[in-house]
Amino acid sequence: MIKESIVALPHTKLATLQNDLTNADTTLIFVHGYLDNANSFLPMLPFFTDVNWIAVDFAGHGKSQHRSSDAHYHLLDYVFDLASLIEHLALSNVVLVGHSLGAIVSSIVASTQASYLKGFIAIESMGPLSEPEHTSAQQISASIQSRFKAQKAIRQPNSLKDIVKARCGVSDLNPHNAELIMRRNLNINADGSVEWRSDKRLRTLSPLRLTEGQALNILDSITCPRAVILGDQGFEKVKAGIDKRKAQFKGVPLYTFAGGHHVHMDSAKEIALKINTIINNY
């Protein structure tokens, strides 16, 4: 049974989907990608019957609380949110299952909060993104402009159908999976009209990305068992990044399934069964 829950942390409120199993030793925490939400894991969740699991909406995504008006959506704030969730719920033997941005956030938690973790599984991610130092001024300039843009009134969508079509046009999601995600990012009114539930500031750009040396230090600092899951039609930049970071991924099991960047939705049952096998061996 899937339960909706709001976890009130000292600094914010995070919406989650949870099961009602309480006596399992292991807890899986599913962490979604950029502009997605906990619903992106719905196709997989029925196949996890012997573990506790929590699928979380990042701040500003899905049904979670928005950041305050004087705050922004920094990568390390997501890291703090996830670490705070684990701490607040007094969880141990945690396996983080992160997709894309969720895997980047999870990699930093795994590298810094090892005492909580039993393992870490990354889906379509090669670890933290990085930019050369000489692009710093350019990054900051672009970030400032994106914040100016976010101050303007947002245009509300015409319909769920239009939003699903638009999301399919900029991603590899099929209409069914796109609707599954977008329903949680929208308020659907009684008259059928829709408006954004997710925070418009999510589209602002990071003021500074990590350097490559910083990203490698994070990956080198992960001590828990980990694995990587890729889609055979997934992002080429992810595959290229793993190849570039061979030393950091040496000995890390890598599994490929049919699907694109949202392979965990495309091959949900197969990936869920593989994850169950992986965590049973931890």
UniProtKB/TrEMBL annotation:
Residues 27-138 form the AB hydrolase-1 domain. Keywords: Hydrolase. InterPro entries: AB_hydrolase_1, AB_hydrolase_fold, AB_hydrolase_sf. It holds the Pfam family Abhydrolase_1. The keyword Ribosomal protein does not apply. GO terms for molecular function: hydrolase activity. This is Alpha/beta hydrolase. It comes from Glaciecola petra. The lineage of its organism: Bacteria, Pseudomonadati, Pseudomonadota, Gammaproteobacteria, Alteromonadales.
